[in-house]
Amino acid sequence: MAQDTQTVQPAWKKALFLPLEIGVQLWKSVFRHGLPLTDKIATRTALTNYWLHAHPPRIRKSHMKFSYTFCLGGISFFLFVLLTVTGLFLMFYYVPSVQYAYQNMKDLQYAVSFGVVMRNLHRWGAHAMVITVWLHMCRVFYTGSYKPPREFNWGIGVILLLLTLLLSFSGYLLPWDQLSLWAVTVGTNMAKYAPVAGPQTRFGMLGSYAVGDATILRFYVAHVLGLPLVASIAMMIHFWRVRKDGFSGNL
Amino acid sequence: MSTATANPIDWRKEVTSALEEFQLFSRRGFFTLVGLVAFGVANLAALVLSLRFIIPNVTYDEALLFKAGAPADYPVGSTTIFSDKRIALNRDPDGFYAISLICTHLGCTPRWFQTDNMFRCPCHGSRYLRNGVRFFGPAPRPMDVVKVGLAADGTIFVDRSKVVARTDRTAV
Lengths: 251, 172
Hints:
The structure holds 2 protein chains of 2 kinds.
Chain A: H1 2-5, H2 11-31, H3 39-47, H4 66-69, H5 72-90, H6 101-110, H7 115-142, H8 151-173, H9 178-192, H10 198-206, H11 213-245
Chain B: H1 2-6, H2 11-22, H3 27-53, E1 65-67, E2 79-82, E3 87-92, E4 95-100, E5 111-113, E6 118-120, E7 127-129, E8 134-136, E9 145-150, E10 156-164
Antiparallel strand pairs in B: 1-10, 2-3, 3-4, 4-9, 5-6, 6-7, 7-8, 9-10
């Protein structure tokens, strides 16, 4: 029946609408729904898209309040992104060696345009991230959100806390001032007190018997590549579990 | 919730049924197992060599032995600090001895205070007497005493790689 009523489009008309058709096709391939011309379509598009709506699609009204989560996980993630971006910029002016590290840090403060802003965003952002991650952990604890079925995600969260602290510790060495040197001396000496392979752990961390060139390179590689990579993978699982497990119940 | 605690998992049954399902003694089961073991061994080997790789065989630390000039440069009763070498060289009436200035708490460098006749560690406040014996703070034991010797050319040397008895003195 449909065939009877279908009119054959002239070729010029087809050519005119072709870009529009391709555009709609592209949109649909990305968003899985039509153009968000109505609220219904817009809502469905957002809720079924992880990138547009990482939170669970169903959530209690009381948990929508800012005071339930204080957005602490979100702020921590925002700070991680901020630290990644500012850290990437700092890498352009920083050479991880005893000879250059301190001078490069000073150059960022005095000789690079907006170097102070970039360095301080990174420095204070790092301090802030440690604080927000701790507060996030406290919030999850006090709302009882660590209990089953969310105990797995609590475990991932503990790993992320440790990674945050390790990132903080490894970054602390890089300015290569007196604080850096002695903080890492003290920190790695603590590792030396570990059972079974304490001194070997310290030697592996330092790459030498004392904090020096080998150490600064090691900490740099861990700080800019190793730890962020592991943290990113852990975060992917963490956020996905938040969506799948939903928010915890009322107190 | 109560039903979950009333029926705990029967692990023996779980393992038995899993083994039955796997069919180890079939051709496919056997080769699957061989493949998995090979995969596991290869990964383990990669892990071991990766860990071994990051532990260096050669370091570029400076030599632990250094020369400290003529004995006559040091008056009896003096304490001389080599801050870069992290050594305090004491000369007493009975001879020389050197203290390794590595705090036994967490490895900072205790600083010499001539007027108080003591070492103080800037990190966590440990204090040591002139002979390196701890008398205050979190440090668990005295600082090491390392070897002092007389070289063939008549100068004295300090060998930080050799810890000696606290009472050892090098007479000149």
